[in-house]
Design a protein that fits this description.
By secondary structure, the protein is of the alpha/beta class. Helix content is 42%, strand content 14%. It is built from 15 helices and twelve strands. Helix 4 packs antiparallel against helix 12 (263-274), helix 6 (98-109) packs across helix 11 (246-255) and helix 14 (325-334) packs across helix 15 (358-373). The longest helix has 24 residues, at 276-299.
Length: 374
């Protein structure tokens, strides 16, 4: 035991201080704990696509199974992305989820003695990517739950190497307009890397999407990250990408594992990218589901933060001064509905619910009504 403790102390203090990421509770875990039938559990906790994987992506995965003895080759996916986005292949960095690309930005640009700026209530991976490098976190107070870009600009110090911006943000669903973000990029110091995380880009109203890929040309310090985990329905395969200046990409590639994205993820992502019907239908389902959930919350007298993602964060009224969100979360679990508590995001009164299929949204609303009464 004492040897083990000595071993653990070899780990830098900044690593030992990390609070591990808290994932949404898996369906299998809830079914085990409460003796529920897995098929009766509704999971609306991780912003996954409720329609599942696109049939074309699934077919591509099945067709690739006999090739698993070979190391992966990301060429085909990079080429497809390069064509779709109108950038050079040298500007694309594939990641084992876009999470991986966020970590690569941390590995390439952060170290002890420097800092990263991000917003209060921003995605949990920014503190992780910063802490893992021993860099200092500058957390900027949010404004109405949204990123306060003016305050973030003012928070940049001489030792700041990276700014993380989620647009839209998870778990708040708040978004920045193209004008706000462009103004930030044009005023941010040129020697600070700005990571714009667009995991929910495809869920944004097309009129609200930023020309972020085109901005990479003008702002060589910009890294745009996107994912196949959300609208493309491939969360379990882990694949995402970054788009940036070729020299920035070359740096990210230096710290990237040579085969970080696996064969099945590559073929599935390539097929999913081409399956435009699936993306369009998923977007439409989200619009309808958002309306259904907002309507249901309104009937229950609950407020939520206006969201531009595939989820909403609902405010659970306090009992006196006492937060009830944790208790409501537990009651929902017993009713077989998994959502995400947000105490870890400094939002102890909110629960985040992913927009599901119409019947899943209904199950959630019924369970929520029961949990609030109980
Ligand atoms: C889900 C999410 C991601 C993407 O995660 P993957 O690693 O691509 O699965 C990135 N950023 C935000 C804000 C997210 O919510």
């Amino acid at each position: 035991m004492s040897n083990l403790l000595d071993i653990c102390e070899l780990s830098p203090a900044y690593v030992r201080a990390i609070a591990p990421y808290q994932p949404g509770k898996p369906i299998t875990a809830l079914a085990r704990e409460f003796g529920l039938d897995e098929r009766a559990v509704v999971k609306l906790a991780s912003n996954e696509n409720p329609r599942g994987i696109s049939p074309k992506a699934l077919a591509a995965v099945k067709a690739a199974l006999p090739e698993l003895a070979r190391y992966p080759d990301g060429f085909e996916l990079s080429e497809a992305l390069s064509r779709r986005l109108g950038v050079a292949m040298e500007q694309i960095v594939l990641g084992n989820g876009s999470n991986d690309v966020l970590e690569l930005a941390g590995m390439a640009f952060l170290a002890p003695g420097c800092s990263a700026v991000y917003s209060q209530h921003a995605f949990a991976v920014y503190p992780l990517a910063t802490q893992a490098r021993g860099a200092h976190s500058i957390v900027v107070a949010a404004k109405n739950y949204a990123h306060d870009l003016e305050a973030m600009l003012a928070a940049i110090r001489a030792d700041t190497h990276v700014v993380f911006i989620a647009n839209p943000n998870n778990p708040t669903g708040t978004m920045l307009t193209a004008a706000e973000l462009e103004s930030f990029l044009s005023r941010a110091p040129k020697n600070v890397v700005v990571v714009v995380d667009e995991a929910y880009n495809e869920y944004l109203d097309p009129a609200l999407r930023c020309p972020s890929i085109a901005w990479v040309e003008r702002f060589p310090n910009l890294i745009v990250t996107r994912t196949f985990s959300k609208v493309y329905g491939l969360a379990g395969l882990r694949v995402g990408y970054g788009v940036c200046h070729p020299e920035v990409a070359a740096l990210l590639n230096r710290v990237r594992q040579p085969f970080n994205v696996n064969n099945l993820a590559i073929v599935a992502a390539t097929a999913a990218l081409a399956d435009e019907d699936f993306v369009r239908e998923s977007y439409a389902l989200n619009v309808a589901g958002m309306a259904q959930l907002l309507d249901g919350c309104k009937r229950l007298g609950l407020a939520s933060i206006p969201s531009h993602g595939n989820f909403i964060s609902v405010e659970i009224p306090r009992a006196g001064t006492q937060s009830q969100a944790g208790a409501v979360y537990q009651k929902l679990l017993r009713l077989g509905v998994i959502v995400r508590p947000l105490a870890g995001y400094a939002m102890p009164d909110h629960l985040r619910v992913t927009i599901g299929l119409a019947e899943e949204n209904m199950r959630f609303l019924e369970a929520l009504e029961a949990a609030l009464k109980a």
